[in-house]
Structure formats: C-alpha cells, structure tokens
Amino acid sequence: MLKNYLKIAWRNLKRRPGYTLINVGGLAVGMAACLLIALFVRDELSYDDFHENADRIYRLNTVTERGNRTHESLHMPAPMAPSLVREQPAVESAVRLYQLYRARVERGGETFYESGFFVVDSTFFEVFGFPLMQGDPSTALKAPYNVVISQKMAEKHFGGENPLGQTITLKANEYYTGERTSYTVTGVTRVPQNSHLQFNFLTSFATLRTSTPNDHKESPWLYSAYYTYLLLDEEADPSEIESAVRALEIDQRDIPGAALEDARLDYVLQPIERIHLHSNTNDELQPGGDPRYLYIFAAVALLILGVACVNYTNLATARSARRAREVGVRKTVGATRGSLAGQFLGEALVFSFLALVVALGLTRLALPFFDDLLGRPLSFSYARDGGMLAALAAAGLAGGLLSGSYPALFLSRFHPTEVLRGDFRLGRRGALLRGGLLVFQFGVSVALVAGTVVIGQQLDHVRSRRLGLDAERVVTVHARDALDNSYDAFKSELLQQPGVEHVSAASRELPFPVDRDMATGLAPEGVDTGNERGIMDVNTLMVAPDFTETMGISLARGRDFTSGDRSEREDGRRPVLINEAAAEAFGWEEPVGKTFTEDGDQIPVIGVVKNFNYQSLKTKIEPLVLMPYMYQEDHVMVRVQPGSLPQTLEKIQATWGQFSDASFDYGFLDRRFEIGEPGDIALLGELAGC
Asked: How many Cα atoms within 13 Å fall on the side-chain side of residue 126?
C-alpha cells in the first residue's frame, strides 16, 4: 500500500515540475537555514568539550570589591597554582599561563610576527586535552627554551620538514624570556577552533625562572598575571576548593605592601565548558559568546521552517480545485477517504525527502559564506553529524506530515457527485484556515524583517557609540624590534607620500585585552584609594605624537601631546592624557592640571580625550592613561586618504623596506574591530544588513 502511494506521489510530482520546484525549493531553503543555524548553535555549545577531562577542568577567577567598585579578573599570582596542588589533595594538577602576545619569528632568513605566544607549566598537557601530534607530552615543556608549536605554525615555518628537534628564533619580551632567542621545538599540537584558548607557541615556565629568577621564583604574591586552571579529582567539591583559595589568600595578607586590607577578594571556579558563553571579563583570551543569541537563532530557525511548511500547505490547498476531479473519480471507483489521505500524505513525505536532499546541497554551498560571517569555519560531516541530520530529517518529515495533513484531509472529504458535476465549494472553514495561515506567514515575515532592522540599528548604535574613534582607512604595521629606533625617520618619509594623512604609533594594537602588564600603579591626586600608599592600578597605553589625530579621537579638554613631551625630563614631570572614564572615576571635575604620583615623580594631566574603545565592544570602557612614548614604537598606525588605499598601501610597504629587513606585517584597524566582535554579534550584524 505504502509503495503504491509513493509511486503515485512520484508520478504526480513529475507531471507538475513547476509546482514541485516551488514546493521543494521553499522547504529546502527553510531546512538549509535551520541546518546552518543548528551548526552554529552546536559549535557554540561545543566549546572546550574536546578535553578528555573537560568536566573536571576549572579556571580560577578573582572578584575584587573595593568600596563601591567590583572588578572581575582572570589573573592570579604565580604561587597560587603550585600552593593549591601541594595543600589540596582534591586538586590533581594545575597549570599557569602567561601571555606574551606577539612574537617576532625568524626562520629560513625570513621574519614574521605571530600572535598567541604563551609561557606555560610543564603540566599543560596533563590538564588540557590538546592533541599532541608530535613530541612527548610529559617532557615537551620541562626544560628552558623549549617550545611546542601549533600545527598551523609547523606547516607555515617548516613546510614538509619534521620540526622536532629543530630550532626557531622567537623574540617576544626580553624582560620575561631573556636575551636568548633560540628555542628548540619539542612538540606539535593541534588547536581546535572551538577552544577558548587559541595559541601558536607554548614555551616552558622554566624559561621565566631562568631568564628572570628574582621576579618569578614562587614567592611574588603581589604580582597577579597568570591564567590559572585546575584539574580536580572526580569526587572534588568546587566550593570547598574556593574556600581553600580564600583561606590561602588570607594567609598572604601580612605580606608588606600587599594592601589587601582595603579590599574584599572572592574566588570563583568556572568550569571550562562554560567559559565561552558565560564569561565576559576584560582580560578574556578570546571574545566570548552570549547564550541569549542562541535562543534568538533557534527561534528564528523554527520560524523559518514554520513559514516554509505554511507555504507548502497554502500552495497545496490552492491547487485543490485542480485535483478535485481526480478525488471524485477515485472515490467513484471505491477509494476510501483514508486511502486518499494516505496518498496525499505520501506526496508530502516525498516533498520533504526531496527538500532534505536539496537542503544538504544548499548547506554545503552556503557554508563558506556562513563561515565568513562568523569569522571561523564550521565543520559539517555526514558521519560526525549523523545525529543532527537525523533530527533534521525527523523534523522535516514531521513538518511535511503536518503541512500535508490539512490538504490531505481537505481533499479527501470532497463528495464525488458534487465534484463530478462541478458543483463544489472550498467552504468557509477552509477559507478561514487558509486566511489564518496567510496571516501567520505574513506576520512572521514582517517580524523577521522588523527584527533585523531593529538589530541592525542597535548594532550600529553600539558600534558608533562604543568605538569613539574612526577605524576606517587606518593601516596598522607591526614594528616591534623592526625599525631599530628609526621610527621618526620612517614617519617623516611616510608623510611625504601622497595618500598618507597621519602617522602615529602605540604600544598595543587596538582593540586588545587588558592584562596586568598594561596596568601601572599610580597615586591620583586627591583620590582616596583605600590603602596607605594611595596607589591604584590604572590601565596605561604608550602612544606617539599625533595619536589622537591619526585615530580620530576627540580631545575634550586641555591639549594634546607634542614632540617635546617624549623627552625624559630631569624633574620626571612627563605629561599624560586621560580619558573621560578616568576623570569620572577619580572624581576630577577639572582634571587638567591634576597630577599622578609614580615612584615619587609628579605626572601632570595636560588633557582629557573623549572615551574611545580600546577593548572588546562588549565591555565597559575603563579608565585609561595615555603616556608619551620614550623608547621604541611597537605598532605604527597610518591613516590614508579616501579612495587611495590600494596604491597608498604599496607606498607604505615600499617605505617600510627602506627602513627594515623584517617582513611587512600589516592589517586594517576596522577589520580588527570586526574580528574582536564575538561571532554571534557579527552574524547578527551581517544578517541585519542583508
């Protein structure tokens, strides 16, 4: 019986190719959209689940309350992890990570600048489950100046050669890694894209102890700069470990200069699988997601599939008049209402199956475009995603049955005598239902369009409000250790090139995560910091003259830097700029003329810049102090004239070659802010713009 229904259904579909194409196409587009969204949602939910002991890995976070201010940080003192391993049996292992950001890499006579350089404990592969493709996980990170590289870096810098045992020149921060730049490759690992921890180079923690023994032996409880992850045993209670950490912190309050008496510190163990979607601090290693957007995307997927099913129902019902005579003839020769309903449901199932096949092809074609929207690749495998495909097939078939049930019941109830006489009507109830379905379809379409417009307006508002600078037409060039103190000459030569408007430099490339290295202990004038020394950590950024003009940052009060502000002064009064958030945080109504004290030196405030975003777009703009560069510039920014980017970029590269032998490693500031957006926000923005 079923085979007969399907044969008849297939014959009817072939007779009406236009109708079949419209129905299959509509359902296929709806299914493909659902599958793409399902892939995105699955990817967001799968972050860090590849670790073998993912359910037992926790990151240690700090929440500091000082007065009416609360600050969450991911940085811990160096002794915290080893102390917990020694004193808490429930802590099986721990690993510390210190981020060195970019490194200058020299290999085969070429120079590159690579990101993702971390100093880690030898227990890294004991805690985490990153697959080590080459090397011994137990020894790869034990000796000083050993380095484990990612598979991507191995392919880039070694090609088809075996990298194990070979040396590579890495230069990051001499203060932490010493003057030696020759590292031995002891391992190659694969870094899954669904990891919140993305890296290219891992060097051993022993490198720090070798190069800076006085600063990094296990006693500096006053210096919090290490991401700390714990591997707990299966019976461990995370709340008990949190209490143990608090007790350990209390034991250190007697350290001279700790200044912890004015603050309340709390510690939270965060499961590694919850970091991506449920953590949003300023010092996150990667921009996180937002679970609310997953609900939005899931709702959109269901609405799209619902509209596709309603569209099928309306089209099938609209064709009822053409099929009424067929129903009448079949009933005359003995067909029952049930058999007719089964036939029409069979057609719906065939439609659904064909639509599913087409949807898989559409998904394959759309994946590259979807990946570009997200900024990361989504994997899709028929073997690995069999469960998801089965669920989609079940949903599609269920949708086909539901959407085909009304036409089946509607057509099968026709009376043969009325149909054969041509005296039949669709009925008021049927008209009302079809009208209701059309209203639903139209309403959902309007809601989706209105939603994308509102989302687009909100994202545009957030971007324009939070940036506070002009990120377009700004070329960024990585210049650390590359210009040999010839920045001024390089800048002068660039400004002579047609198409170049402004040139400046900074110690960090915007936007960047805040870490302990960019915080400076300053004593702001007239501010009660709650400790005896009057010192508070303030985010600082070293900049060259013309920074605000190059970046399109507005000056709210006072004056900007001049070339003379870069000089070392005998009285130590090297001026600074602050942002509006700093003036507000310090309670300075007239900030120009106020001073900071640093190591006994008075630092005057000469101006206030309007708030601009120097971190993730999802974070609140924090107080910032801009200090004039005194030494070598790290990142050069070049603003070019409108409509001249391609030819001006060539001139910038040619000028670079006159001053440096290093590779021309450049980027675009607006693109960096797009990359800094989490994938869900970027996807919403692109969909809103479509």
From this structure: 20
Domain identity same for 74 and 214: yes
* Residue type at position 38: A
pLDDT at residue 85 above 80?
yes
Mean pLDDT on 270-288: 86
Helices 679-689 and 337-374 pack at an angle, to 10 degrees, of: 110
Those residues with Cβ within 8 angstroms of residue 207's Cβ, 6 or more apart along the chain or in another chain:
119, 144, 145, 146, 177, 178
Q: What pLDDT, on the 0 to 100 scale, is given for residue 463?
A: 55
- Token pair of 251 as six digits: 């034991």
* Beta-strand pair 91-107/224-232: antiparallel
Instruction: Give the mean pLDDT of 432-448.
Output: 68
* Closest to 493 in 3D by CA, of 665, 668, 662, 657: 657
Residues 241 and 350 in one domain: no
| Cβ partners under 8 Å of residue 405, min gap 6 | 345, 348
Write down which residue in 426, 458, 490 finishes a domain: 458
Shared domain for 562 and 416, answered yes or no, is no
Q: Are residues 333 and 443 in the same domain?
A: yes
Query: Do 378 and 512 reside in the same domain of the chain?
Result: no
Integer Cα distance of 515 and 507 in angstroms: 13
In the chain, pLDDT over 90 holds for what percent of residues? 27
Residue 511, preceding peptide bond in cis (omega within 30° of 0): yes
Q: Which amino acid is located at 418 in the chain?
A: E
Domain with 160 in it: 68-262
Question: Does residue 454 sit within a domain?
Answer: yes
Instruction: Please give the mean pLDDT across all residues of the chain.
Output: 79
Most confident by average pLDDT, 45-49, 212-216, 376-380: 45-49
- The whole-angstrom distance between residue 409's C-alpha and the CA centroid of its chain comes to 50
Question: How far apart, in whole angstroms, are the C-alpha atoms of residue 63 and residue 73?
Answer: 6
Structure tokens given for 284: 């996150």
Q: What is the pLDDT of residue 255?
A: 47
Count helices and strands in the chain by DSSP H and E runs:
22, 23
Q: Decide if pLDDT at 252 tops 70.
A: no
d(CA 532, CA 255): 14
- Regarding whether 603 and 557 lie in a shared domain, the answer is yes
Close Cβ partners of 313 (under 8 Å, ≥ 6 residues apart): 403, 404, 406, 407, 437
CB-CB neighbours of 563 under 10 Å: 11
Tell me: do 123 and 155 sit in the same domain.
Answer: yes
Q: How many CB atoms lie within 10 A of CB 202?
A: 26
Strand positions, DSSP E, 145-204: 146-150, 167-171, 182-189, 201-204
- What DSSP state is assigned to residue 573? -
Q: Do residues 39 and 298 make contact, with C-beta atoms less than 8 angstroms apart? A: no
Q: Which pair of structure tokens corresponds to residue 496?
A: 């002579």
Q: Whose CA is closest to 309, among 178, 440, 133? A: 440
Structure tokens at 476: 């960024």
Q: Look up the pTM and report it.
A: 0.76
DSSP 8-class letter at 565: G
- Using the 3D structure, point to which of 458, 491, 515 is the last residue of a domain: 458
Residue in 374, 367, 226, 372 with CA at minimum distance from that of residue 289: 374
The Cα 346–Cα 408 span in angstroms is: 10
**Residue 160 placed within a domain:** yes
- The answer to whether 100 touches 172, Cβ cutoff 8 Å, is yes
Q: Is residue 572 part of a domain?
A: yes
Number of folded domains that form the chain: 3
Residues whose CB falls within 8 Å of the CB of residue 440, separated by 6 or more in sequence, listed in order: 306, 310
Q: Is 619 within the bounds of a domain?
A: yes
Task: Output the pLDDT for position 262.
Answer: 56
Evaluated on CA atoms 509, 510, 516, 519, the torsion sign reads positive
Residues 120 and 25 placed together within one structural domain of the fold: no
